[in-house]
Design goal:
about 55% helix; about 350 residues; three-stranded antiparallel sheet; globular; mainly alpha
């Protein structure tokens, strides 16, 4: 490989970052290895395992890269921040780095021409196009399912994926999550020390142990199963079901002179907090720190809308069911139960919460 830029870019990364790159290719090397030797190993892995890039990077990233070539391998600072969701993964692999030319306002990022040529030649092959689509489908379903359920055990995820991917296994699921950049960033894992079952956790879950603790109360409840297209909606972090209550809430916020971005922030924050099992009252009090309602009637309407949304929203503690689906319209007021520090930990370890996941 003749790419001095790539070597320099890799050299600018920390040793821990370099070890993470090697882990993507299942290559182990002694922690005491000097940086130069680690970089040599990475370059060798890049050359010998280039097909792995199709598994690591999302289809959108590969499509975005198709516009670059040897003559066009520079990205302005403005473009970088506009397309950072595609470029940040490349930065973590040393394929893009910031270069400053001694000219006014001429700061830009440079892409590795070796990588651009390699990824483009790989993606042009018909058999690889099929593979790219396969990986993208798997990515969208895994992330969509985990975001819909919030916390889901690995065996349930396997059961949900099997009808679509006949030869899928737990080992393949975990290997794909660990290698796929977007999944590696947005999914975390929690192991039950008793059963050794691994729970997969969505990025927006703030207290997974609390969610798991509440879910256990509904042990006999089956997971709500969606169609693949419905799961893939939740692949998008900002996806919200456009119910009439949500539409009314948007209209109420607009009447208080809120603009698009702020409305989007408030709506997604409210939905996120409801799914994290926060009470309606605490959510309303939080919103009031940012919004002054024009009248007590407006505040009352706001409270009513949040209450209705909380009843019709697919909830993590109910395995994707809504409160209304489980309890009916005349359900008891929603309460939030916190785990006592001296209670048994819900992960099943047999230890007290304060000595286990509550540390």
């Amino acid at each position: 490989m003749e790419d001095k830029f790539l070597i320099e870019s890799l050299n600018s990364l920390l040793k821990d970052d370099l070890f993470k790159i090697l882990a993507k290719f299942n290559i182990k090397i002694a922690k005491s290895t000097v940086k130069g030797k680690i970089i040599e190993k990475i370059v060798e892995a890049y050359e010998n395992n280039s097909n792995t890039f199709l598994e690591i990077f999302s289809k959108d990233t590969i499509t975005y890269l198709s516009q670059f070539n040897i003559e066009n391998s520079k990205v302005s600072e403005e473009e970088f921040f506009e397309y950072e969701e595609f470029l940040l993964p490349l930065q973590s692999f040393g394929f893009i780095s910031k270069t400053v030319i001694k000219e006014k306002d001429n700061n830009h990022y440079v892409l590795s021409t070796w990588f651009v040529e390699r990824i483009n030649s790989l993606s042009e092959k018909d058999e690889n196009k099929t593979l790219i689509d396969f990986y993208q489908e798997l990515e969208m379903l895994i992330l969509g399912m985990i975001r819909f359920y919030g916390v889901v055990d690995e065996h349930k995820l396997l059961e949900l994926l099997t009808p679509t991917f006949n030869d899928i296994t737990l080992e393949k699921i975990h290997a794909f999550i660990d290698s796929r950049w977007i999944l590696n960033v947005f999914i975390s894992k929690l192991e039950d020390s008793g059963s050794k079952t691994i729970y997969l956790i969505a990025d927006s879950v703030s207290e997974p142990v609390d969610i798991l603790h509440e879910t256990i109360k509904y042990e006999g409840l089956d997971y709500k199963v969606l169609t693949n297209d419905e799961y893939k909606n939740y692949w998008n972090y900002f996806y919200i079901e456009k119910t009439q209550d949500v539409a009314d809430l948007i209209a109420l916020l607009m009447s208080h002179k809120l603009q698009g971005p702020q409305i989007g922030f408030e709506i997604t924050t409210i939905i996120d907090r409801l799914k994290n099992n926060l009470s309606v009252e605490s959510i309303v009090e939080d919103v009031k720190t940012r919004i002054t309602f024009e009248s007590s009637n407006s505040e009352s309407i706001f409270l009513t809308l949040i209450t209705r949304i909380s009843k019709s929203l697919p909830l993590w503690i109910l395995k994707g069911h809504t409160y209304t689906e489980i309890f009916g319209e005349n359900q008891p007021p929603r309460t939030v139960t916190k785990i006592g520090r001296n209670e048994n930990c819900p992960c099943g370890s047999g230890k007290k919460y304060k000595k286990c996941c509550g540390k």
